[in-house]
């Protein structure tokens, strides 16, 4: 297994895994363990274009910026690469909108999220893309039939609305970039 991260001791991992049918006599090359990723305090150190504020000739990308996940790290790397190439060509492209997944993640790691926090200083923590990073949207309160929505149904409608807005804003950003 790849990516088996756990706090279980090695002996206990072997015992638990051997409970799975077909793994009773399995030999494990290596057991999993917790790991701690190293990351920058990006909101304090990086500008919106992923450059080091103290030395703008340096740009960071991927997991070290404080994004979590393979897709997220690749996405931040892609944006950093595009920004570096544009800078080399003396261009100044627009950043992805914060209403999109990659734009919301960039906003989180470069400090845009801090502006909306009223309760004093916060510690920066790495993050996967999630709907909590997206700017708020007017939540639908009734369905198409006019029936009041609540609970999971309303949450799903909110996520659909956030996704539809993200798709539209991403398409507009991509069209403007080409």
How does this model look, in words?
By secondary structure, the chain is mainly α. It folds into two domains: 1-35, no CATH class; 36-177, FAD/NAD(P)-binding domain, CATH 3.50.50.60. The chain is 38% helix and 4% strand. The protein contains five helices and two strands; from the N terminus they run ααββααα. It has helices at residues 10-17, 42-45, 70-88, 101-109, 151-177, and strands at residues 51-52, 55-59. The protein has a two-stranded antiparallel sheet. The chain is flat and about 60 Å long. It starts with 9 loop residues before the first helix and ends with a helix. The model is unreliable at 115-120 (pLDDT under 50).
Quick overview of this protein structure:
Helices cover about 40% and strands about 5% of the residues. It is mostly helical and about 180 residues long.
Question: Helix and strand layout, with pairings?
Answer:
Layout: H1 10-17, H2 42-45, E1 51-52, E2 55-59, H3 70-88, H4 101-109, H5 151-177
Antiparallel strand pairs: 1-2
How many whole angstroms does the radius of gyration measure?
Answer: 21 Å
Strand order of the largest sheet: 1-2
Series of H and E elements = HHEEHHH
Shape: flat
CATH superfamily of the largest domain: FAD/NAD(P)-binding domain
**The biggest beta sheet, please?**
2 strands, antiparallel
Roughly what fraction of the amino acids lie in strands?
under 5%
The helix-and-strand class reads mainly alpha
CATH architecture of the largest domain: 3-Layer(bba) Sandwich
The low-confidence parts are 115-120
The tally of structural domains comes to: 2
């Amino acid at each position: 297994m790849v990516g088996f991260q756990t706090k279980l001791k090695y002996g206990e991992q072997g015992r638990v895994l051997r409970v799975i049918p077909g793994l009773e006599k399995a030999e494990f090359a290596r057991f999993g363990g917790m790991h701690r990723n190293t990351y920058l305090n990006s909101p304090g150190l990086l500008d919106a274009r992923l450059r080091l504020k103290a030395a703008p000739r340096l740009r960071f990308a991927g997991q070290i910026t404080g994004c979590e996940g393979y897709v997220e790290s690749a996405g931040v790397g892609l944006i950093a690469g595009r920004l570096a190439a544009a800078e080399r060509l003396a261009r100044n492209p627009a950043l992805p909108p914060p209403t999109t997944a990659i734009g919301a993640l960039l906003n989180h790691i470069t400090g845009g999220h801090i502006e909306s926090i009223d309760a004093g200083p916060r510690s920066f923590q790495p993050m996967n893309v999630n709907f909590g990073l997206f700017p708020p949207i007017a939540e639908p309160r009734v369905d198409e039939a006019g029936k009041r929505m609540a609970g999971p149904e309303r949450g799903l409608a909110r996520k659909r609305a956030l996704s539809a807005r993200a798709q539209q804003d991403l398409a507009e950003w991509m069209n403007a970039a080409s």
